[in-house]
Amino acid sequence: MSSRLRVSGGPETSRDVPGASSSTGNTPAVEYDIVVRQTGATASSCGLRPGVVLYCPGHPPSNVNDYLILRELDEPISRDDLHGAAEKSGEVLEELRSEGVDIKWVDSEVLTNDDGAVTGTFCHYQAESEDAVREHADRAGLPATRIDRQGEPLAGEE
User: Which of 6, 110, 137, 148 yields a CA-CA distance of 20 to 30 A from 131?
Assistant: First the structure.
């Protein structure tokens, strides 16, 4: 198998990139999106048209950690309010990434009371630092009651 990856960013930019490989190995003619938070390699840094990214020598994957965030709310909120908060969170994530901050929302567990009102969330993020997670919370107007790195999970019952 070749140690080269044929990167296709359109007919005018398709070319072999020595030493490059996809996350699944050497896969020919694969179109990539820019995923700077995972690789640090962009199209322009590897001499390609914007719109592609690859695992390229000299551009190792970034170092992110998994963080778990407890967001306790002072008063319960509705599901509509929760969706509004999620939208604002997404906007702030895009803003931070455009500033070069390596952060991604993975998922959230929703905490509710007996009436079904939302009392908080337990969120999983991947980020370059706890400061990045806290900056996101501050800008999005979200509580961050507790932020911890994710440890090794425990297996539940079978």
Answer: 110
Class of the domain covering 65-149: alpha beta
Q: Give the integer Cα–Cα distance in Å for 132 and 126.
A: 10
Read off the pTM. 0.61
Phi-psi bin for 19: left (phi > 0), alpha (psi -120 to 50), beta?
Answer: left
d(CA 96, CA 140): 11
What digits encode the pLDDT tens for the residues 43-100?
A: 455 554 444 444 444 444 468 999 999 999 999 999 999 999 999 999 999 999 999 9
Give the SS3 label for residue 78.
coil
DSSP 158: -
Cβ atoms of 2 and 26 within 8 Å: the answer is: yes
The full set of domain ranges for the chain reads 1-62, 65-149
How many CB atoms within 10 Å of residue 109?
Answer: 10
How far are the Cα atoms of 26, 52, 102, 120, 158 from residue 55, in angstroms, in the given order? 10, 11, 17, 38, 38
- In the numeric block, the tokens 């592609």 are attached to 52
